[in-house]
Known about the structure:
By secondary structure, the chain is α/β, with parallel strands linked by helices. It is about 35% helix and about 25% strand.
Amino acid sequence: MARIDAFLKLGREQNVSDIHFAVGVPPMFRMHGDLLPIKFRELGDTELESYLFEIISKNQKERFKAGEDLDFSYMSEGTGRYRVNLFKKASGIGAVLRYIPTEVPTFESLNLPRVIKSFADFRQGMVLVTGATGTGKSTTLASLIHHINNTRKENIITLEDPIEFIHPSLQSQVIQREVGTHLNTFQDGLRAALREDPDIVLVGEMRDSETIAMAMLAAETGHLVFGTLHTTSATKSIDRILDALPADQREQGKIFLAQHLHAVVTQDLVRSADGKSRKAIVEILIMNNAVSNLIMSDKTFQIPNQIQTGSAVGMQLKDQALMDALMAKEVDADDAYLHSMDKKLFQKYVTDSSLIAKQ
Length: 359
């Protein structure tokens, strides 16, 4: 058993989501959104390196020493699977390990708006799930893939970095491929996927213009593509795609989004009112003629107005969802203020007035 497993076991006993290791500080647990040190000595560079090098391969060690960051999955005996990011920083090495539940979550268990589940019913086009790192994008997508896997006979190809939830083939065939293990880049995976008779392709991260272009091609040619972006609103997601494209492809990109983008879900996690968990707060954009026209006429800044008036079909702005959760006493008022877009709407609910002064 690797020595790092002892920390992972302690983390699971306390139900933490992430475990952080860095030189010069003790290990830290992410618990209900807060980062808390455990009672342990400050880690030295040599000690931490010895812990982490026990769980990587010779090839990974060579790549890391050559200057690469590492993203991989790790199975801890008796504890479970973790997504690991190993990196170097000014004071030495560091790592973050995120726990991956063994069971793929059902959509119902996530308490997300039901309209999101309907996005799994599309047969072609693109659906984006966006948000900052650690906001549950992978979990939401896993629940949608799980739903399709249980209800339809499809060929599903996932491209992940690294593989998180394991999907056994049920009604569908699920082929999971990992960047750095089974393929070099997401672009390579998408290029190969188009020759593998897919019905559905999941792209774990659309991080560059080449991947975005390949994902668009897959959606245009009759496949359903689920993708993620590190953007914090539906409007920013659309702008991110258009800005990533070369200038001579921008008009083509606008046409693609207007015709093939079905929906954008943007997620955030906000501390619950009792402080014992976090609740997913989501912004939902569903494509319609009005949004398509705004994209084509370069007026994406007006999209929030369309989302606000589209509640009848399931659309909602992040602040709308945040206020609903606050009124239902599901989230902490101070944390709701910190995560809000229009902070004036939430000021009167703040209990710690010093937060307002900091903004």
